Amino acid sequence: MFIPFIWVFFIYRLLHYHVTASHIVSFCPLNYISYDNLCYGPIESGQAKFSSAMFECYQNGGGNLTELDTLHKMVYATQNLNIYREYWIGLRDVFNRNSSEGFVWIQNNRTAVHFTNWGTLEPSDGDNDCVYIKHGSASWFWYTRQCNGSAYAFCQRGDEYHTD
């Protein structure tokens, strides 16, 4: 029996919805992972500068660059990423201190960083103020580069859609 693709897609999405009494539907877009009431996923359409990646996340569901502020979140949220690509995250040295103390999560009122997972010899000196993640031998590590460099956007967004 042949089932048209649109019905297969509809049934798939229907099975992934969770409806609560307050008429809130929780779901994440395809290729995103749900964790702690947020959806995490990459925008794989092409590499971009840091500021353009921020805008791409906003355009795709009102999101932001991901804040990997705990080890558990970093391990869980990065499961669907391509290990051969580099991804911007929402961490930046906004004060040009060139030390790990100068980096803040830019989307959340410039929150200080309490968890780090820097790669070897990072954070580096100079104008390398923006942070991207790159897969190492067994994990994702944080690296710095100039903000006009390029990487893919790794976004986070809310997972609620109000139906009333």
From TrEMBL:
**Which residue ranges does the record assign to the C-type lectin domain?**
35-156
Q: Which SMART domains match?
A: CLECT
Could you list the residue ranges forming a coiled coil in this record?
A: none
| Residue ranges of the TM segments | none
The alphabetized UniProt keywords are: Signal
> CDD domains this protein is in?
CLECT
Q: What superkingdom heads the lineage?
A: Eukaryota
Instruction: Kindly give the InterPro entries that the UniProt entry links to this protein.
Output: C-type_lectin-like, C-type_lectin-like/link_sf, C-type_lectin/snaclec_domain, CTDL_fold
Q: What Pfam families does the entry give?
A: Lectin_C
Q: Which residue positions does the secretion signal occupy?
A: 1-21
The molecule here is called C-type lectin domain-containing protein
Report the source organism: Trichoplax adhaerens (Trichoplax reptans)
